[in-house]
Amino acid sequence: MNELEKKLLYGTKPDPVVATEEQNKYLKKFREEREFDNIKPSTVKNDITSLKVFLAFCEEIEKEPYSLTTHDFVIFFNMLNNRRNCTVRTQNRYFNLLKVFFRLLKYDNFKEFERESIERKRFSKFEKKHYDTINFDTYNRIIKEIILSNSRTRLRDALIVRVLWETGCRRSEALSIRYKDCDFEKGRFRIRDTKTYEERTVVIAQETVEILQGYIKENIRRDSNDYIFQNEMIPNGKRVKLDWITNVFKKAVRKLKEEGVIPEGKRIVIHSLRHGRATDLLDKGVPIDVVKEILGHRSLETTLYYSHSKERKDGMLDNIQKLL
């Protein structure tokens, strides 16, 4: 089998790295520290996978992490780019991960590389916008597209998208809402399964409450611990799969692009709903610290990013100039 045939059959993704005994001592320490910080298990698992690549590199050049030089880090990131074909975004994730790794293990040798990288503008947390925000009109067109589809779950799917828009929840948070989390009289949900491990309360419109109450009457299971958005293909009350609602959203966006409603160059993804909610709330005068709490962000910096603060700042400067 030649190389082209291998690529067609297996793709070009690098083989997963298996940790050695030496690497495991670092991974164990990192895992313990992250668990102490209450970092979500899925996040820790992904970080461990990436760290295996870094630690394998250390073994390859026969150095311990604490003995690496600035130039060694340069070689590592060149390797990510050239041998593993990592995108700029993935390289940025490695950079941020190594900052955490070296801080937790109390090794200082990454700091010089970090300072130099900042000076050279090599890594930047938000150096490019990976997807576009969404406004109310586009959101409405997406809802309409889902409702007009032939899918027998179209009501449920459109309702999930509506809840995502109104609450600003993450996809996993909305799909994890259970009956016991709902106050239908007040139109409030308690969000438990959060990225930050901190519970918060979100609200929906009264009209959405009425639609939701009509929908959940058809649920197979309605005990307090059951999910409100259930997978209709499985009669045990399991929640809707994350990929399902993502694909429903993608399909609607793709159709609207074909019709010219959404510009082809716009990258609208399901997370754009969360960005759109942040922008909408700020445009309506809701203080940014309140928006931060509603969205469940750890820092105001993230909320500013979600609201596309550069565009907002440019608009504010234009308005200030008119007052001069």
Quick structural summary:
The protein has 324 residues and is mainly alpha-helical.
How would you sum up this structure, described in words?
With 324 residues, the protein is mainly α. It folds into 2 domains: 12-119, Orthogonal Bundle (DNA polymerase, domain 1); 136-319, Intergrase catalytic core (hpI Integrase, Chain A), CATH 1.10.443. The protein is 57% helix and 3% strand. A hairpin with a 4-residue loop joins strand 1 (182-183) and strand 2. It is globular, with a radius of gyration of 23 Å. Residues 129-318 form the Tyr recombinase domain. Keywords: DNA integration, DNA recombination, DNA-binding.
**Helical residues, percent:** 55-70%
Relative strand content: under 5%
Indicate the CATH architecture of the largest domain. Orthogonal Bundle
Q: Count helical runs.
A: 15
Measured distance between first and last alpha carbons: 72 Å
Mean pLDDT: 86
Structural class of the secondary elements? mainly alpha
Largest sheet: 3 strands, antiparallel
What sort of overall outline do the alpha carbons produce when their principal axes are compared?
globular
> What is the name of the CATH superfamily of the largest domain?
Intergrase catalytic core
Q: So what's the CATH class of the largest domain?
A: Mainly Alpha
User: How many structural domains are formed by the residues?
Assistant: 2
Radius of gyration: 23 Å
Count of DSSP strands: 3
CATH topology of the largest domain: hpI Integrase, Chain A
Keywords: DNA integration, DNA recombination, DNA-binding
Domain Core-binding (CB): 21-106
Organism: Methanococcus maripaludis
Domain Tyr recombinase: 129-318
